[in-house]
Write a structure and sequence with these properties.
Elements lengths: L12 H12 L14 E3 L10 E3 L5 E2 L14 H13 L6 H8 L3 H15 L17 E9 L16 E8 L4 E5 L5 H11 L5 E5 L3 H5 L5 E5 L16 H18 L4 H16 L8 H11 L7 H9 L1
Parallel strand pairs: 4-7, 7-8
Antiparallel strand pairs: 1-2, 2-3, 4-5, 5-6
């Protein structure tokens, strides 16, 4: 389905609210306070549209309560449009571009995007927490360092030090990626055993940290990159899929975001992981991906104070 900017959900707040209700409440309103499905729509001039009252706990709520959209004064149609734009942009979209397209301030666009990234973060809502791989499957593990280019730095916004990221990619499947403090056997092992099934075949490069870690998996094969190998001697072992995933992140960091602080790096990594896990090859188009973000918004909150404190920590 092609993107249509004239779609009412991108231009009408009421239509956008109905769209969110359909995605978050497919079987009818659910109270975010007690999870009851018995609620009454409040109508009349005294109540705003989309307001409900729970018949069990008597609390009032709307579709925004208990989500990343809660307590926002930005029209829901702008939220829906921003969600679609971030879902459809393969290498990410800058806050300046969102600022121009939505007609909001840069500060507002920046915060909106971080809240949407929070909805993209791994959770039961978007199937981002289960270990990848399994018996008969191949998981590729690799690590890299990400950060902006020095030439993009200026006095008011220096380029942060490049930070390590470890990625696990199931060949033909989904990915998991984590920003780690350092690339040591201890930190890499924690990512491996937490996010990949040990019944998998593990493919890595020839880094020494994987020598003992590989013994915890059903099978371990490595590629000798230092000798110029791109495929193992058996003709099957490779880390090309993991490197393709890293290529997307690096293009986004260097070409779109330019400078990402360590405090927010994991959210940016989660954004790329989410799009990878909802890509065309796995049956997801832009609309399916955007709807998955909306569903992932439930049960999450991100305040500006929390975001700002993380940046200044």
């Amino acid at each position: 389905m092609a993107f249509d900017i004239t779609n009412p959900i991108y231009n009408d707040a009421d239509k956008a609210r109905i769209h969110l209700e359909q995605q978050l409440w497919p079987e009818g309103p659910v109270c975010p306070h007690c999870a009851s499905q018995h609620a009454t729509a409040l109508e009349g001039k005294a109540h705003r549209k989309g307001l409900y009252q729970c018949n069990s706990c008597r609390e009032q709520f709307s579709v925004m309560v208990g989500t990343v959209f809660e307590r926002s004064k930005i029209g829901l149609h702008k939220w829906v449009l921003a969600t679609h734009l971030m879902a459809a942009s393969k290498k990410g979209m800058s806050a300046k571009q969102i600022e121009r397209m939505l007609g909001v301030t840069y500060k507002t666009a920046w915060f909106m995007m971080h809240r949407i990234r929070e909805a993209m973060s791994p959770s039961d809502n978007n199937e981002g927490t289960d270990p990848i791989g399994g018996a008969g499957k191949v998981v590729e593990a690799d690590e890299t360092f990400v950060g902006g280019k020095a030439k993009n730095a200026h006095k008011s916004k220096p380029i942060p030090t490049k930070q390590p990221v470890v990625a696990l990619v199931e060949r033909g499947g989904k990915a998991r990626a984590k920003h780690v403090a350092d690339v040591t056997a201890k930190t890499v092992r924690e990512v491996l055993v937490t996010h990949a099934s040990r019944k998998s075949e593990l493919n890595t490069d020839d880094a020494l940290i994987y020598y003992w870690l590989g013994k915890e998996f059903a099978k371990h094969q490595s590629v000798n990159h230092s000798a110029g190998e791109y495929v193992g001697k058996d003709g099957a072992a490779t880390t090309n899929t993991a490197e393709s995933f890293f290529a997307l992140i690096k293009r986004g960091m260097m070409g779109t975001f330019h400078s990402v602080s360590e405090a927010h790096l994991q959210r940016y990594v989660d954004e790329f992981v989410f799009r990878w896990n909802h890509r065309i090859a796995l049956g997801c188009d832009d609309h399916t991906r955007a709807n998955a973000i909306v569903k992932g918004a439930a049960g999450k909150r991100l305040t500006y104070r929390r975001t700002n404190e993380a940046a200044n920590a």
